[in-house]
Task: inverse folding
C-alpha cells in the first residue's frame, strides 16, 4: 500500500443512551446489566459533513475488553481508566442503582 492510498478518516463516537436489561449468563442464571448505545459517524468531507453512521448496543464488559486490547497492542499510548461499574457509597458500603442518571452520565 502506497502512502498516497492511505488516509486516516475522522470518526466521531458517542455513547447516547443507557438502559437496564435482563438476560441469562453462562451459568443460565438470570442477571440484570446496563447496556449502552454507541453511535459512530464517519466524517469524510472537508466541510465536516457526517456521511456514514452506525450504532450498536454494548455492555460494560466490551469496554473492558477494548481497554485491555489497547493496553497490550498499543503500549505507547495513554489509555484512561474506565469508570466504576457500580455507584457505591463508600461511607455506607451500599450500592446505589446503576441506572441513576447522574451515575450513568459520569460513567
Result:
Amino acid at each position: 500500500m502506497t502512502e498516497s492510498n492511505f488516509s486516516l478518516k475522522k470518526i466521531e463516537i458517542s455513547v447516547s443512551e443507557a438502559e437496564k436489561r435482563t438476560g441469562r449468563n453462562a451459568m443460565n442464571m438470570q442477571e440484570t446489566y446496563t447496556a449502552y448505545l454507541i453511535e459512530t459517524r464517519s466524517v469524510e468531507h472537508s466541510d465536516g459533513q457526517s456521511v456514514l453512521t452506525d450504532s450498536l448496543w454494548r455492555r460494560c464488559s466490551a469496554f473492558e475488553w477494548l481497554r485491555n486490547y489497547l493496553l497490550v497492542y498499543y503500549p505507547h499510548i495513554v489509555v484512561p481508566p474506565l469508570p466504576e461499574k457500580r455507584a457505591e457509597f463508600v461511607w455506607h458500603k451500599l450500592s446505589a442503582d446503576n441506572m441513576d442518571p447522574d451515575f450513568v452520565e459520569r460513567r
Observations:
- The CA atoms of residues 55 and 89 lie 33 Å apart.
